[in-house]
Amino acid sequence: MGYEKRFDNRKFDEFRPLSIKAGVIPNADGSALVQVGNTVAYAAVYGPRDLHPKFMQDPQKGTLRVTYNMMPFSGHGDRVRPGPSRRSKEINLVIENALLPVLDLNRYPNAVVDVFIELPQTDAGTRCAAITAASVALADAGIRMKDMVAAVSVGKVDDKLVVDLTYNEEAYPEGDVADIPVAFIPSTGELSLLQMDGKITPDELERVLEMGRVACVKIAEAQRSALLEKYEDASLKAVDIALENGREAAARSGEDEVPPVDDASRGDSVGDDNE
Asked: Residue 40: which domain range?
């Protein structure tokens, strides 16, 4: 019969509901929260800061260091053992290599930029959510970047090419499954990550990579919107604080409360002394 309808009723080229927020961890230099369906990833960036021990420093450029961790009860099946594992070390390297093409680390000699990623809840696509979150967190930290990096899993379930596989699709029992995590640099269309688990024909691979590129362009738009939203909110808060400080200063000097701007434009408070 084949795989005719996705478990969550999405279109085959549609990724799961996506939410991105920047600046969610106050003590970090930059941070982000990404939720893709039921997969949740936090990323926190610290640095650039001096790299220790000093023998690891590079006088020509900075170092990117990624630490990826799934919480013990975050996923399906068995409990995840705390601490570094072979899988987490592999994903650390995968994420570093996906992000390095957009980073200008030459500006940070002898320094390290640390990226810590925690996943409290997972439903497949964890490395892709981690890359997407890390990219936003790096931008939030002010690290020099030429573009964002957006990531999504694509693949094949039975005879259908799909975007953003869930755990149930990865474990589909009635046909072959190919899972292909990809990361793109949206401005150039360059791939910075391509892995594959499963079988797929060259023609199908070409088609599904284009589906992934289109999805990553949309994800990158959400990344930029999250950063803009954070700094627009910060600007509005700064204006509110400045106005409040002005009112307090006026009150301390014995003057009347500073009127809102639109009151002046209406003339409501003009000419009172002449009445």
From this structure: 18-237
